Amino acid sequence: MSGLNRQQPLVLGIESSCDETGVGIVRGTTLLTNTVSSSMDEHARFGGVIPEIASRAHLDAFVPTLQESLHEAGVTLDEIDAIAVTSGPGLAGALMVGVCAAKALAVATGKPLYAINHLVAHVGVGLLDGRRALDGRPSADGKHDAGAAAGLGAGQLPENLGALLVSGGHTEILRIRSITDDVELLGSTIDDAAGEAYDKVARILGLGYPGGPAIDKLARQGNPKSIRFPRGLTQPKYMGTAGEKGPHRYDWSFSGLKTAVARCVEQFEARGEEVPVADIAAAFQEAVVDVVTSKAVLACKENGITDLLLGGGVAANSRLRELTGQRCTSAGIRLHVPPLDLCTDNGAMVAALGAQLIMAGIGPSGVEFAPDSSMPVTTVSVPARAVSPGR
């Protein structure tokens, strides 16, 4: 560890928590390469991610993805200062593949290994300054596009930072006091993630998988006000007040929304009427983004958060980016959105957080840790296990 470059560490990051095999390489806060192999097409006929298929796909894709990443970055394994790997949360089998690959590399090369939190890595990627952010100007139709907001950049965290992570497996609002050792979960979904709800509703509407892009596209042709779908956990008994918070003030629930869409379709079919798919898609999407953004902004306002990072695969959704931008602007909150290819699961975000840990002087995890599919967000990285004197 004494010879480790802590100023501008060259870190290789490995991501395998779901259906993307990602390998990224960063030097300090500069992104060198971000290589991703997705098994999404293999899951399409099932309408969702099948863990066993994802795990086998990681096995097939890891070595070619690693080789491509090293080639694009123009570095060798010998030049790498450290390795970082997602150790949770995620699919147990998928995590196991990435963790075992990372341990094998660490043992073979003698490089220090960092086991890090997938969710916090989504925030870490915002610190990379090696990608040009868009300029934040209004789009051609005059609407504010939060997708054009810049990432955090330059390796510096704003003082009062929050993160809204919305994906197929996660929907959380976090408060980040220190990205290396002080992350607090303010709210999360208590059942389906937002992206999971998109996939299930797309299946109900016959739109295929993945559901997010299909619903986003079709919703532009529909009327979001045609049907009022429920916003979960927004009743007073769940919300409470600012002075006396309810049990789910900053939490979400999407399972009831999915059921409401299914019942709506059934009613049209029972009456022998054509199902207004575009209107249902638009109304469903509006229900999701309305409750996600309203609760996220509420959490920011009540917890002194002045900067919000939007991440996760659903950050690609045009309506989510638009409404988040509008509501953050109204509340005086600065919104940050990394480039969309860095919002989805990738190895660059893992490498970015690994580099932050090294620059903060935090030690590696060793190779005795195990993947944790329910790893809490408060565990940014897994500390090395103490070795007993008898070992």
Explain what this protein looks like in three dimensions.
Pfam families: TsaD. Its main location: cytoplasm. Residues 31-129, 163-351 form the Gcp-like domain. This is tRNA N6-adenosine threonylcarbamoyltransferase. Fe cation binds at residues 118, 122, 345. By secondary structure, this protein is α/β, with parallel strands linked by helices. 38% of the residues lie in helices and 16% in strands. The protein has twelve helices and ten strands. Strands 3-2-1-4-5 form a five-stranded mixed sheet, with helices on both faces. The chain has a five-stranded mixed sheet with strand order 8-7-6-9-10, sandwiched between helices. Strand 6 (161-166) and strand 7 form a beta hairpin. Helix 5 (194-204) crosses helix 6 (211-219), helix 5 (194-204) runs parallel beside helix 8 and helix 9 runs parallel beside helix 10. It starts with 9 loop residues before the first strand and ends in a 32-residue tail after the last helix.
How many H/I helical runs? 12
The strands making up the biggest β-sheet line up spatially as 3-2-1-4-5
Q: Supply Rg.
A: 21 Å
Report how far the terminal alpha carbons are from each other: 21 Å
What class do helices, strands and sheet pairing give? Answer: alpha/beta
Q: Total number of β-strand segments?
A: 10
Q: What does the average pLDDT come to?
A: 91
